Amino acid sequence: MNHAVGRAIVNVVRGGLIGVAEVIPGVSGGTIALIVGVYESLIDGAGHLARGVANLVVDVPRGRGARRARTHFSLVKWAVVLPVGVGMLVAIVIAAALVAPLIESHPEATKAVFAGLIATSLIVPIRMAGLPWRVRDVILAFGAAALTFFLMGFAPLPPAQPSLILVGVAAAFAVCALVLPGVSGSFLLLTVGMYAPTLGAVNDRNFAYLGVFVLGALIGLGFFVSGLQWLLANHHRLTLVIMTGLMLGSLRALWPWQDEQNVLLAPSGNVGAYVGLFIAGAVGVLVLIVIELRLAKSGLIEMDVPEKTLASA
């Protein structure tokens, strides 16, 4: 198989994994992007894309041409961003129809699997930040974890029939959550009562709703990603330390035993089976990391995480 075609296929699969995560409340697409090694490439690409579009809108009407926009567009890793984006969109449509009902039917089991996934994936940002960690790093990480744990405890509002203006505003905030590892955009929508309507719009092909949602998401992305891109470029270690804390705190949403108001309950029922599912999720992440490492060594894919980092993980 041609290497370029092979890379495109692998990147579509990477995007598919991210897209599935975005449909699952409590699981962050940013976390999956970290695991599969494309997080920083996507953030960097989104930042340049947003600035390129902004330059295009401002410069062309003023007769300045598209030079600045083309410069930003040329810095986007299109060979990664395009197939990942295609994989995400296809996976979101499929997962909305197949995965979401599975979560509703077996919430404890699915939470146990994804809790194992998230817990094990903490090794990625920890080692990307660099070892050893200082006391300040540990304090910042646990502070971010405590804040996320607290915010994840808010009871969700009943499903709403939101106006299109509210849809756009919610999408702008949800997309900010999408790009932060440990922060789930679906969980945010669930908390404000807009998860079910948004999922219904995907399944029903409500293009008016989806169009406004995408527009709001693009606006939010334009404002938020540039700041995150700057943080990764200028405070790389600090940003990854805080991301680690966000991921740790997000495990609260994946505790298998909680009621509809997100109140944590004591373990009950078939605890052994849930522990087994937790371990299965953890092993799945380790297998995925190993596969990614081998593909990177073969030159089939590029990864944000250095090979020596993953090899020692």
From TrEMBL:
InterPro entries: VCA0040-like (IPR007163). Pfam families: VCA0040-like. Keywords: Membrane, Transmembrane, Transmembrane helix. The keyword Transmembrane applies. It comes from the Bacteria. The chain crosses the membrane at residues 78-100, 112-133, 139-157, 164-195, 207-231, 271-291. This is Putative membrane protein. It comes from Alpinimonas psychrophila.
